[in-house]
Each structure stands twice: as C-alpha cells, then as structure tokens.
Amino acid sequence: MKDEPPAPVVNASPRRITPAEQRLARRLEQYTAEHNQRSGGEAWSELGMQLRAFHVRAAKEQTATERQALNIELDAWKQKLETLFPR
User: Fold this and answer.
1) Residue 66 and residue 62: Cα distance in Å, rounded?
2) Is residue 4 part of a domain?
3) Residue 5 near residue 35 (C-beta atoms within 8 A)
4) Which helix (H) or strand (E) holds 54?
5) Residue 20 domain-assigned?
C-alpha cells in the first residue's frame, strides 16, 4: 500500500451559535483564506493540517476556557504563517 494523506474532514464548520463562536468562526475563515493565499493552498502542509484540526475543534461545543485556549493556539499559528510565508 502506498502512503496517502488522510481523507479530508467532512462537515467541520465551526459552530456559530453564540457571539464568541461567531467570532472564532470568522477568525478561522480569515486565516483559512490567508493560508490559501500565502501558501498556494498547501492543504497537506503542517500548517494546513493544524488549521484543519482547529476547524474540527471549533465545530464541537466548547467551554469559554476551551475557546480561549484555541484562540491562543491560533495566535501562535498565525505567527508561524507570517514567518514561513511573509507578504
């Protein structure tokens, strides 16, 4: 068997019930667009895989503490993106 990347995540849209979830969803959409623009859409890169994992986590119900932790991780991810793919 040859190594193949994992199957794409299906229906990993961030929840948008509360205002905090809506803000997180908008942030993920912005970062996804920025990642695609800067990297040329390298979905299977480390950053692309991390971004996909953030979408999966944001699709689940989260406490405020869990959302805060995800936002902190997104801050670090954004710094990596800017370092690896400067404008």
Assistant:
1) 6
2) no
3) no
4) helix 46-59
5) no
- Nearest CA-CA partner of 16 in 66, 68, 63, 58: 58
Q: Give the range of the structural domain holding residue 54, as residue numbers without chain letter.
A: 26-84
pLDDT in tens, 7-24: 454 457 888 999 999 999
- Distance of alpha carbon 49 from alpha carbon 56, whole angstroms: 11
CA dist 33 → 1, 37, 53 (Å): 34, 6, 16
Number of domains in the chain: 1
Q: 45, 39 in Cβ contact below 8 A?
A: yes
Rounded CA gap, 65 and 45, in Å?
Answer: 28
pLDDT tens digit sequence for 14-73 = 889 999 999 999 999 999 999 999 998 887 889 999 999 999 999 999 999 999 999 999
How far is the C-alpha of 18 from the C-alpha of 22, rounded, in Å? 6
